[in-house]
Amino acid sequence: MIEIQGLNKSFGSLHVLHDIDLNVNDREVVVLIGASGSGKSTLLRCINFLEFKDSGSIKLMGQDIDPKVCDINEIRQKVGMVFQHFNLFPHRTVLENIIEAPIM
User: Which residue has the higher pLDDT, 88 or 52?
Assistant: First the structure.
């Protein structure tokens, strides 16, 4: 489902992700645990292309994803992410928040 090899991401001189390898199989549940600032969110943001990797490869469903070639919006339709500090509409149900959420 997800295959990451040698993923690197830096912000200036801060090297956040260093040669990350990760494989997540279909129907597998994976939990990322680590200290604040250890790169968990950065890894997820790279998988969803909210951040762009410096090097390495990201494959989704067997397809090597290159933002320079692939339609990132099409890829994002197949990859979901719930942010740590998300804002839901309190007057809507969970399903209504997902289906009827305004596009920003």
Answer: 52
